[in-house]
Amino acid sequence: MTEFLDTMPAAYARVFTTSEVLEHAQVVARRGAHLVHAEICFGPSGEHFCVVAEDRPGLLALVTDALLVHGLSIRNAKVYCRKRADGQAEAVDFFQLQHTMGDVGAGVGAAELSAFLQTLSELVAEDLLAASRPSAVPASSSPKTRVYFDLEALRRGESTLLVEAPDTEGLLNAISNALHAQNVHIRASEIRTEGGLAHDRFDLVSNDAQALTAVRLCDIQQAVHAALPKLLRR
Question: Which domain holds residue 221?
Answer without folding.
Answer: 146-232
